[in-house]
Specification:
The protein has 56 residues and is mainly alpha-helical. Helix content is 89%, strand content 0%.
């Protein structure tokens, strides 16, 4: 897990959400999927940071 992959997923979300706002309903589904991925990535990154803090 890296910050780079999280930021990449945010860019994907931005693109899909913009398509959704223009009326593409399928893009809404992809945006929701992207949000779910972001949630998981953020939680994994949060755990990594906490583990690094404990080892220092």
């Amino acid at each position: 897990m890296s910050l780079e992959s999280l930021l990449n997923e945010v860019e994907i979300l931005k693109s899909e959400y913009e398509k959704f706002e223009r009326g593409n309903k399928s893009a809404g589904t992809r945006a929701r999927k992207s949000l779910q991925s972001i949630k998981k990535m953020a939680q994994d990154l949060r755990i990594e940071i906490q583990e690094q803090k404990k080892t220092e």
